Every structure is written in structure tokens, then in C-alpha cells.
């Protein structure tokens, strides 16, 4: 499988391969919290240190895998599915040495994907990514922790979906099961937090899902699939809480869903005793804006670390909010309450020919 285009650079410039590293660099297992953004990547980006470069490429390859493993041929009888089973995914896609094991496939409602993002509809949900956990002892030692990764697929229709983006911000109310009472309690993200309606609808859309190999088919939202699986994995590895991380990755639409789901998961962790310290990181490639100023502030407030890789000529990171965004300055902050004023989250790493870590 080809190395993920992070994203395609000007004049065919590419990131230096991870093999070109400084022999004096610290081992990843000793600095993994910094690489995951514990100190906001201070001193690691300009130039990008080899450990971070290698991790960005690794998570980028996982995002690329979501494209490569998806049957997007409209004439195929298996359209909308992954080419391979959970057990065989990494082996069949040339990543047998990844050290990860897929535990859950993620699906989204195809009617919504058709209406908003231009993908062909299908009776049942289409494959949108996977959840995996690092299980190989050698890889766990190299990483310095056990890592849970959630990789989201972008749309197969290129940039055409931008024209149909709903481009309206809406409030969201999500509930989490209270550990003390066992009941669902509605949790408001924060006062004034708004999310782009198309991304939120995709994340909360309902799909038909089979429980187990011979289980009954039930209606469940994409969001519930993700949250329930992350909760399950955290309980399985609860004794490793001090050396556990959750990492989200995706490209384009996938990057937006990675950001939204990372925020949702971190909010869930904050409601549970001793779970709030688990680091949650997003490696987002060519991500559009996801929400408003209150959303961006809340992402930072609860400790979600977002690193966005952006090609300065790419259109996707400039939407939605082409006119009203973080670059407008004071005006956008004064009008942050409008349902079309967007702000990027986290830290941006622009990719261009003059970047010190780019090799032409």
C-alpha cells in the first residue's frame, strides 16, 4: 500500500520518509506523550522531529487504508463494504506488521451520504472505517503504551461534496450512561457549541447493524457503535490506564468525523471516574472546519489534542465558513453566534515546498 499522501504537495514534494531519522533522537516509548500532543507539540513542529514525522505517516497510512479497502464501485454487488474481514484487514492490505487488531467496523447511513456527500445509496449502511487496538507486545513496547485507534474514511466523490455541504451550524445534545445510576443522562457539549449539520448528521445517523455472527439485526447510530466499542475496550484494558491512548485519524470528511468523534469520546471519558486522564489525539489530514468558536474552545478545554496537516492549495480546509472564519479576526469573534461562522480547532501544520521537513 502506498504511503498516505499527506496531502499531495506542490510540485510533487513529499515528506521525508521515516527511515531518514537522526540516530540521536529519543525512543518513541520515552516521549510518546509529547508526540501525542501533551504539550501541544511545542518545539516538535518546526522542524518536525523524526518521531512525530514517523507517527504522522503511520496514522496517515491507517487513514489511507480506509480508502484502499473500501469497495466503492457502484456496479459491485458488494458496494459499500470493506473488501476484507476484520481479522484479515491488515494482512490483506500489506500491514501485517502493524501490531493492531481490528475490533469493530464502523458504518454510516447511506441515504445521508448520498444527499450530502454524493455517495451511491445502499439499503444498509456503508463502511466508513474501523476501530483497532494494539495487541502485539513488541509494538506496545515500541509505542510505550497500548493504543486504540479509530480511522475514518473520507468521501469517494473527491471535492464534489463541498458544493452540497449543508454549511449550517446546529447545537448537539448527546447522552452518556451514568456509571453511578446506570441511566442515560443528557450532556450538553457546552453553552453555545455548534457543529456543522452534515457532519453531525453523518455521525449520529442510524444504520442496520448485526450483533454478532448470528445475532439479531438492530437499528443503531454510528455514534453509538463508536462510543460503545471504546467503552468496552477501556474496560478490557482498565488496568493499563496509565499507559493507554486513544488516537483518531482521517482525511477530508474522515478528518471531520475524527475530530467530532474524538470530542465526543473525550466528553464521555470526562463523565467517568479515572478515565478522564486517557490522552485523546487527532491526526487530521485536509480537515474541513467542524464547528464554531465555542466548539474550538471546548476542544482545547477538555484536552483533545488535534494536529491538522494542511496543503495551502487544498480547498477542503477552507470550508465551510469561507467568508466567516478564524482568519477574519475580531469580526468573526463578534459574530461567533451566527450559524455560519466557523473556526478550525487545534494546531495547523502547513505543507509546502519551503517547509523545513519537506524534501523535493
UniProtKB/TrEMBL annotation:
Predominant subcellular localization, coarse grouping: plastid
Where does it live in the cell? Plastid, Chloroplast
Query: Is this entry keyworded Chloroplast?
Result: yes
UniProt keyword Disulfide bond, yes or no:
no
User: Which SUPFAM superfamilies does the annotation name?
Assistant: alpha/beta-Hydrolases (SSF53474)
Alphabetized Gene3D superfamilies for the sequence: alpha/beta hydrolase
GO molecular function, one example?
phospholipase activity
Family according to the record: Belongs to the AB hydrolase superfamily. Lipase family.
| Protein name per the record | Fungal lipase-type domain-containing protein
